[in-house]
Write a structure and sequence with these properties.
256 residues, 2 domains, 4-stranded mixed sheet, 3-stranded antiparallel sheet, 10 helices, elongated
């Protein structure tokens, strides 16, 4: 008979919970379960058992002290020679520039119904460096814009060509690193799509709903990171209303 706190036994219990409609479990609940089975179990052993459950794909981080009872991969964007080239030239010219991130809106294509004909490369750099970065890149690239407004987006952005947009990076933005390139985390992209309606005009309305629903359905997603950044951008209430009004599941931290 398997131990009641072995990984296989706990996994079986968790899968039964999932089948009954429970999607999330808290760290407190897992700790309570392990201590009920063995009151003398150490905190380090509990941490190791929770780590094993995550590593084996039984649970996935979904926020501070919260886990999704399901194996979800992290979103991994397609490799881009263009982004690598931009970052290589940028870091060579500005070796002190450590706070930045870069991404392409074509990453969103797997989450949308229609394919946008206005491809953007978003380069966010530390505040007060954006003009220097813009002037440097302007020597090598066409269709590059510094903090564009709605008039520039509508009048000057090129269809079916890469448009490079240089904007200041919001401090404490959720960023990850793939190879030598710093990219925004999925949580940041979703908040920014909501906040920058003029820049991301092609991804508003139903497409924004599609993106939110498909991201949360397919990939690992940290709700704490998402809401912390939404608060950082002072859009918590607006985004919460958008999610509730459109019945988008999986974002609210009180969900279980």
């Amino acid at each position: 008979m398997k131990s009641p706190y072995s990984r296989a036994y706990v996994a079986k219990r968790l899968f039964r919970l999932r089948e009954s409609g429970v999607k999330y479990i808290s760290k407190k609940e897992l700790v309570k379960y392990f201590k009920k089975q063995n009151p003398k179990i150490s905190d380090s052993t509990i941490r190791r058992r929770i780590y094993d459950l995550k590593k084996s794909g039984v649970i996935t981080n979904s926020g501070r002290g919260q886990y999704l009872i399901e194996n979800r991969p992290s979103f991994l964007p397609p490799d881009s020679a263009f982004l690598k080239k931009v970052v290589k030239s940028l870091t060579k010219r500005f070796p002190y520039l450590s706070n930045y991130c870069i991404w392409e809106t074509k990453w969103l294509s797997e989450f949308t119904v229609h394919q946008a004909s206005l491809p953007l490369v978003i380069l966010e750099v530390e505040r007060d460096t954006e003009e220097s970065v813009f002037n440097f890149l302007k020597e090598s690239y066409n269709n590059i814009f510094l903090k564009p407004g709605i008039k520039e987006v509508e009048k000057y952005f090129a269809f079916n060509e890469k448009n490079i947009v240089v904007i200041p990076l919001i401090s404490q933005s959720p960023i990850s690193k793939i190879g030598n390139i710093k990219i925004p985390k999925t949580e940041k992209i979703l908040v920014d799509l909501f906040c920058e309606k003029n820049l991301f005009i092609a991804y508003q309305g139903q497409e924004l709903i599609n993106i939110y629903k498909n991201v949360i359905k397919k990939y690992a997603f940290n709700r704490t990171t998402f809401w912390s950044y939404a608060k950082r951008r002072k859009r918590y209430n607006q985004i919460r209303r958008f999610i509730l009004e459109n019945h988008i599941e999986g974002f609210m931290e009180e969900e279980n």
